[in-house]
Hints:
Elements: E1 7-8, E2 14-15, E3 29-37, E4 40-48, E5 58-67, E6 72-74, E7 78-81, H1 83-94, H2 98-107, E8 111-114, E9 121-129, E10 138-147, E11 150-154, E12 186-194, H3 212-227, E13 232-243, H4 249-270, E14 278-285, H5 287-295, H6 302-311, H7 315-324, H8 329-337, E15 345-353, H9 358-364, H10 374-381, H11 389-401, H12 406-418, H13 422-430, H14 439-453, H15 456-468, H16 472-487
Parallel strand pairs: 7-8, 13-14
Antiparallel strand pairs: 1-10, 2-3, 3-4, 4-9, 5-6, 5-7, 5-10, 10-11, 12-15, 13-15
Helix pairs in contact: 5-6, 9-10, 10-11, 11-12, 12-13, 12-14, 13-14, 14-15, 15-16
Amino acid sequence: MKNIYIISLFLLVFVLNISVANAQNELKVVSHHFTQADDSLYITFDYEHPNMNVSANKAIYYTPFIGDQERIKELPSISLMGKFYLKNYDRKWAVKSKKQKRAFVANGKTQVLTNNKKGQTYTYNAGVAYEPWMKNASLYIRNEDCGCGKVIEKQTESVARIQPQQQEYTPSFFTAYIVPQIETVKNRSVECEAVLDFIVGKSDLILDRNNNAAEMMKIIETLNSIKNDDKVKVTAIDIYGYASPEGNIEANRLLSVDRALVLKSYLMSQYTYPASYYGAHFGYEDWDGLIKVLQTSGKPYAEAIINIIENTDDVYTRKSLIEKYQNGVPYKEMLQLYYPPLRRVVFKASFEVDAFDIEEAKALVHTQPQYVSLNELYVVANSYDPHSAEFKEMFDIAAKTYPTNDVANINAAINAIENDHYEQAQQYLLNVNAHNTLPQYINAKGIIAWKLYQDIDMARRLFEQAKVDGLKEAENNLWEIEKIENNQ
């Protein structure tokens, strides 16, 4: 008897709902799907063992095949064999040559069932080269009763109707890293802020006055941290004096420079660096610092004072308005609470860092990453497996160490994309200068446009822009966009 199960095929993956007629020798298909990937079509279905016994000298062959009105493509068969039929089948298989067996397996070996396996469920898998006509073809399962090497009975019966559901195409986008430039000279710097308490109008440094000793120790410890490091060479020491914004600007400038010079003299007495290494500078009257402290002060007058500062360009007019506001009461309080800490110095030491090989750089990435250049971090990253946690970590360290560097953030975003961390990738891209035109950056933005927002038009425009700049990966991504559209 020959039963035909008709199952409609589509280009991609389909789930099919089948109502199967009751027949004594039916092969009941319980679940199945078809996948078209690249140039191949894959057929998979689960079926139950036929609920019957076949005679010892007989077999029933179930042969799936793909067909339309003009063409068919047979697939490996399933066979329920009786005891003696199976022995004969095994003898024929045993005497085949290795070449014959290889050819037989290449074409698809028969899946053999026996009478004692009733009630079990099996999975059928087969693959064929995909051809365009298969898009509108059907899958049939033909069954034939055989005995003594001959087909005894066959019959055709349509027993199924199909309700296909199409699965969306998932694109595989391509990325490209940027190789950071090699730093010929690695220039770095450290800074330290100290609030030294000077007598009003004076520039004498008195270490035992109030908290001066502790504030000076911050500067000493900062300088010692690089002085005692044999990987670096100090090249400059700059001291910036800042003034609180009251009184005469020129007087404040002179007093701030004098105080910076006093600190310079003190440091020169403690260290052997040449005098040419030192510089003393006037920072400015620290209006920004005053605004910052007022914003967190909770004072009722804070908003009004900030408004005066931000909307009065002439400095002397600004100071006068602040001094007169509410009869000078807020001003007197600010002089006591907020102005003294603004009279500070900022110490900055500049230095050069040695170049490192891979092993030296690896030893520093977790303890002193600021000494490792972006290029060195990139080299370290590529010494690991691209799928490893260490590989990803190097790009995160680079972005954290160099938060304002576009290349560091772009590469970290690309790595996040490769790990399917699209929100994190977007955060890295937001740190990049919006006017940056590097094609790797534009390409990454295109991927995020699709992955987070499904904005296919934006993604296409960005990929096209990156392609114009010669990025091969962007051209591949345009092909992925085309596949998405063809699937819709």
